[in-house]
Amino acid sequence: MNDTQLPITGICLVSKPNNVPTGYLCIRKAFDDTNRDADLMADSLLERKDRFLCITRAWPLTDMRTLGSDCARVLEDIKLINERDNPPQNYSPLAYTSDTREKGTAKRLICVRMVERQAGMKCICDIVFLYRSKRPPQFYTLIGDINGLQMCVKEGTVPPLRPSATVASQPQSNLYPNPMADQSFQTSHQQAPYPTADYSNTNTLGKKSDEKEILDCIPFEINPKYLAALRKNPNGNDLTGLETFRILSSYEIDQYYNYDFNIERSTL
Length: 268
Description:
Layout: E1 10-14, E2 25-27, E3 29-30, E4 33-37, E5 52-56, E6 73-82, E7 92-93, E8 108-116, E9 122-130, E10 140-146, E11 149-157, H1 183-188, H2 224-232, H3 250-256, H4 262-266
Antiparallel strand pairs: 1-5, 2-5, 3-4, 6-8, 7-8, 9-11, 10-11
């Protein structure tokens, strides 16, 4: 399960991207234009004012003994209203920044509904802002505009609670550093929010001795062109002779490879 499938457990506004609360992620750039800041407040004539939305999916946020308080809440819904309108019932406005206690946003107000966590309930898992497009990415819903940006949310369901699992220690890789090795990370993430479940005692069909796996008899080999590059430089990591490729964002994939299935639907 990737991060955007986990429920948001905390949300706030900050005046500067460097003032993000511990454990939170700042939504700093527009989803469809990484050169555009996802700034939620327009600058005035006399000064520059920045507002950035921050979210966290960490759980629990506080001691597990305080279940029923804010540690066991998830973001169920979010709305954009005019600044002078009253927030909907049971919704709380993000009226101030968490770092400087300044006014949160202008003209438009972000209102959130945080509810007690229950497995299977509807929740908000991700939030993005669009600058160039008014069409939400796949699996996202457009909820309104704020400071020239289109605010989109991704809905999901809260997974069931499971006890923490012990993670076996693994050797450190120099190519991909392990963030779990950082002491500050271990301190703030002592309990995994969604550990892997143990299905060893469930009633499942066992594999017969003469049965084969789907991938049996399929050879897994390194492409010869990569082997040739490694033979030329066996003691290094120089792969400059190989072709390069571009990693597309989910928005770009949706734009480039969108298919409406109209032909298939017409045959039904």
